[in-house]
Amino acid sequence: MRPRLRLFIGEDEHSGTEVVEREVAIELQDLTAILADAIIWDRAWLSDLADERVKISADLYEVLMMYSQMRPCA
Q1: In sequence order, what DSSP letters do the residues of 29-61 get, joined into one string?
Q2: Is residue 2 part of a domain?
Q3: Which of 10, 11, 15, 27 is the most exposed place for a label (fewest CB within 10 A)?
Q4: Which domain range does residue 43 map to?
């Protein structure tokens, strides 16, 4: 994921109060590595963003829901 820099030249491009949310794509393996590290090190930003909603594919959602309902083996 490359950071994007924006040049500020005075007035913001959005003159109203409308907030434009942009979407980005990231591979699941990259996302899980970042989140796992943040959980291990108990990063504050993770709890700050805990109530954020994320969009995922229907397939991934189904897998996650099935996994969450599985009981651990004895």
Answers
A1: HHHHHHHHHHHHTT-HHHHHTTT------HHHH
A2: no
A3: 10
A4: 28-69
The tokens 């434009």 sit on which residue? Answer: 20
Place of tokens 């109060």: 17
What whole-number distance in Å separates Cα of residue 67 and Cα of residue 42?
Answer: 24
pLDDT in tens, the chain (74 residues): 667 777 777 766 555 666 677 888 999 999 999 999 999 999 999 999 999 999 999 999 999 999 999 977 75
Summary count for the chain: helices (H), strands (E): 3, 0
Cβ atoms of residues 1 and 30 within 8 Å: yes
